[in-house]
Design a protein that fits this description.
This protein has about 700 residues and is mainly beta. The protein is built from eight helices and 37 strands.
Length: about 700
């Protein structure tokens, strides 16, 4: 059994010890070809052991912020990877050597067919599990950050299990999704994104249910010529994922791995720290003072009459200078505060926004058992992921069970199956900016005061003596109006405004392959992808806007079934010409159902989160859709002397969402590649290739 626990414990201790002294360094430089000194655009420049990275521009230049003691990895397809220790260097120029072996690699293409990368007339790039950046247990997309040329990956909102988006060759549509199609062991994966329809919460996207620990390799198909066999779903590119199996494993093997990662909010806005709460209309740079007579407070407050106060009712910082003057703050008026009936200096709090966030931690434990021989193989794995977010109270817990196996039941017949089960539960806070005061990261970035002591807000969110929520934005402490005006205490929001979601998902396939004659096989596969997502969200009693007290429940159920049959023929026609041909068909049926119910008019009983607690009859909504697409597809690849290749492919779809008389649409593709270096006997040219492709992509409409 392979155990890496001691390694991670040691790494953790070293990390904690180094945090206190680590400082960032900006490194710049140029990446060129070693042979001729020409700049190389698109080179991946990544901090070793992290997902932090960039790519060189058209002139081969890069700029990267790295921690003290780090090393930088420079990699690009067709070139040998280099790893350089930064040390005290601020400028690192790199000359990459060509790697002929890398250019001859075999990659996985459409429908899982393996081909020599050099023979392709379109762009494909493969990433093996060992070549990925530090694996993000919550997202396979984040795990390939900086590893694929021409691909932009954007991590989500910073919340637990937040969605990640990936663009292959930029934006292709202004109205529809620009996300690629994910294929796992041949099964299309629904990359649903509930966040697009839910203001303020990020529930992640469907591709995050792919377990990075189960991935053996990943191929990125770029351009319509590469993805034609997947139809319009592949218009934005295709990510083909092959999972690990027991193939080639003799005897029974067991592996265990444990990974711990820490997350911190990284980039913060720049704030001014000279002026505090207020604005010019409040008296400019002069302090407002406490008016005992107007306040209506008890006699104990008379000693503070005409004492300077913070303009608590404002959410801007263009008031008096923060010069250390003794003033009354918001918590001076809260009986439970240790600052009650006391003044303290009016001073800047440079890190008050940063202190809203905690250190997140993600722990992933995975165990797998594998076995294989000439006739059969299997792999069974279990992964547990536990994530605590950088926002107080947010967490994610995920359990994944995966099985993949095959068995040769006859000399010409093999059966296979793959199944993945995911169970996930999360607690999430709102992200971004919402005008209702219930999103902390956005609200406290825009509407805030530079004199706020975040630690005091964290310690005191509710006053029993006052009978209400308390925080920095009290209406006007100068005249005793001690109720919140516009903004909740951020830590009250974390405790009382959140969403709970639970998800169950199953995806996989089973089928058989039959060798009809030598070189000709038929494969039949049934595939499915099903998920159930339940969400309830709430805004608690005591919110600064009382009319927004709220509770709702929603359910989403979706599944997609694919039934597929493919003939595959491979033949060396003569000494010089080779042929690979595919003919297949697919029936795809998908269904989606959702329902929602929510309270209206607030709660009958405070803080009782149930639909029956609605003051008025609850609001409801529901939705149902279904769609079927029947498809035929074919492709042929001719090779001449391992030097000249021609690929022809086409697909025709019949969609249930189009009028019966015009529900058919066709998309062809042609591509060619010429390895002219095969005609040149020069040691300085390891490989020379010209490729071109042309394709037409069709599309239908969504269900209605």
């Amino acid at each position: 059994m392979k155990t890496t626990l001691q390694f991670y414990v040691l790494s953790l201790l070293l990390l904690i010890g180094g945090l206190a002294v680590a400082q960032d360094r900006t490194v710049t430089g140029t990446v060129t070809e070693a042979e001729d000194g020409l700049p190389i655009p698109g080179v991946n420049v990544v901090v070793l052991g992290t997902t932090t990275g960039t790519a060189t521009d058209l002139d081969g230049n890069y700029k990267l912020i790295v921690p003290e003691g780090a090393s930088i990895v420079f990699s690009f397809i067709g070139y040998a990877t280099q790893t350089i220790e930064v040390g005290s260097q601020s400028v690192i120029n790199v000359a990459l050597e060509s790697d002929a072996q890398a250019l001859e690699e075999v990659v996985v293409t459409a429908l899982g067919i393996e081909r020599s990368e050099a023979s392709l007339g379109y762009a494909v790039q493969e990433v093996n599990a060992d070549d990925m950046a530090v694996k993000d247990p919550t997202s396979i997309t984040n795990s390939i950050q900086g590893r694929v040329a021409g691909v932009q990956i954007k991590s989500g909102s910073g919340t637990v299990g937040g969605s990640s988006s990936i663009l292959i060759r930029g934006v292709s549509s202004l109205e529809q999704s620009n996300q690629p199609l994910y294929i796992v062991d041949g099964t299309p994966i629904n990359n649903f994104d509930v966040s697009n329809n839910t203001v303020g919460y990020d529930y992640g996207n469907g591709a995050q249910d792919i377990n990075p620990d189960d991935v053996e390799s990943l191929s990125v198909l770029k351009g319509a010529a590469a993805t034609t066999l997947y139809g319009s779903r592949g218009a934005n590119g295709v990510i083909l994922i092959t999972t690990k199996s027991g193939k080639g494993k003799e005897g029974l093997g067991v592996e265990f791995s444990s990974t711990t990662t820490f997350d911190n909010a990284y980039i913060f806005p720049e704030f001014q720290n000279e002026y505090g709460a207020g604005r010019p209309s409040d008296g400019g740079l002069d302090f407002q003072t406490f008016d005992f007579a107007a306040s209506g407070l008890n006699i104990g407050w008379i000693i503070f009459d005409e004492t300077p106060v913070v303009v608590s009712g404002r959410d801007e910082s263009w008031g008096p200078k923060m010069d250390g003057t003794e003033v009354l703050h918001w918590d001076s008026f809260v009986p439970e505060s240790d600052n009650y009936l006391q003044t303290r200096p009016y001073s800047p709090q440079p890190d008050n926004y940063k202190k809203l966030f905690d250190t997140g931690i993600t722990i992933s434990n995975s165990v797998s058992a594998t076995k294989g021989d000439e006739e059969s193989s299997f792999r069974l794995s279990y992964t547990n992921v536990s994530q605590k977010g950088i926002v107080l109270g947010t967490e994610l817990k995920k359990n994944i069970i995966s099985f993949k196996g095959s068995n040769k039941i006859h000399d010409r017949v093999k059966v296979f199956a793959s199944v993945n089960y995911i169970k996930q539960n999360s607690r999430r806070s709102k992200f971004g900016y919402t005008e209702d005061g219930t999103s902390v990261p956005g609200g406290m970035r825009i509407w805030t005061q530079r004199n706020i002591d975040t630690d005091r807000l964290r310690e005191l969110t509710y006053s029993n003596a006052l009978g209400r929520q308390v925080g920095w934005n009290l209406r006007d402490i100068s005249d005793g109006r001690l109720y919140l005006r516009w903004s909740n205490n951020p830590f009250w929001t974390f405790d009382n405004v959140y969403a709970l979601d639970s998800k169950n998902r199953v995806y996989g396939n089973f089928g058989f392959s039959l060798e009809i004659i030598e070189g000709l096989t038929f494969t039949s596969t049934a595939r499915t992808d099903f998920y159930n997502l339940n969400i309830n969200n709430r805004i608690g009693t005591g919110n600064v806007y009382p009319g927004q007290v709220y509770y709702s429940e929603s359910t989403r159920n979706a599944y997609e079934n694919n039934y597929e049959g493919i003939f595959n023929y491979t033949k060396q026609l003569n000494e010089n010409i080779s042929l690979t041909a595919i003919l297949g068909g697919n029936i795809r049926y998908s269904q989606y159902k959702s329902s929602w119910i929510g309270t209206v008019g607030g709660f009958e009983i405070d803080d009782f989160y149930h639909i029956d607690n609605s003051v008025e009859p609850p609001g409801t909504s529901s939705y149902f859709s279904e769609k079927q697409t029947n498809s035929l597809f074919a492709s042929a690849s001719l090779g001449y002397k391992d030097m000249l290749y021609l690929d022809l492919s086409g697909r025709n779809d019949w969609s249930s969402t189009l009028p019966v008389e015009s529900n058919s649409y066709f998309y062809p593709a042609v591509s060619a590649s010429f390895l002219f270096s095969e005609l040149i006997d020069q040691p300085v040219l390891s490989m020379g290739k010209i490729r071109a492709g042309y394709a037409i992509v069709g599309n239908d409409t969504g269900p209605y």
